[in-house]
Task: inverse folding
């Protein structure tokens, strides 16, 4: 019964995360005017928009996915891990072993934040270098 309760709570929370995706899935059609025909075209637009590039290549799609999905999720994860490390500092209550574990958690969360920032910086440097080499 406890497992069923946990699953139902997780599904309930997940539904609030996923529901906006379905609600805002498509654009609202324009209201028909008396002079305009009543034919309405409905389509699914590209959510990534290839980074705003007019010519969509695999590289622009990968960059768009990394910038719009992976990096925000990873940034939220790093912030949550730093908060968790701070919480373990507070709950350590002066026990040296628990304080050492909290220090390790904080260290590795900051290492993760550094890796994220370094990845963004390196990708921008490589992008500008390749762009300078390709441009005539």
Result:
């Amino acid at each position: 019964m406890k497992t069923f309760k946990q699953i139902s709570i997780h599904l309930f929370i997940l539904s609030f995360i996923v529901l906006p995706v379905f609600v805002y899935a498509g654009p609202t059609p324009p209201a028909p005017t008396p002079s305009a025909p009543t034919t309405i075209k409905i389509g699914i637009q590209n959510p990534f928009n290839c980074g705003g590039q007019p010519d969509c290549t695999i590289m622009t799609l990968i960059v768009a996915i990394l910038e719009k999905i992976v990096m925000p999720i990873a940034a939220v994860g790093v912030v949550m891990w730093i908060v968790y490390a701070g919480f373990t500092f507070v709950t350590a209550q002066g026990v040296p072993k628990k304080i050492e574990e909290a220090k390790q958690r904080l260290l590795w969360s900051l290492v993760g934040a550094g890796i994220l920032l370094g990845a963004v910086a390196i990708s921008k440097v490589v992008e500008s270098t390749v762009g300078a080499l390709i441009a005539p």
About this structure: Residues 2-134 form one domain. The chain has a mean pLDDT of 79.
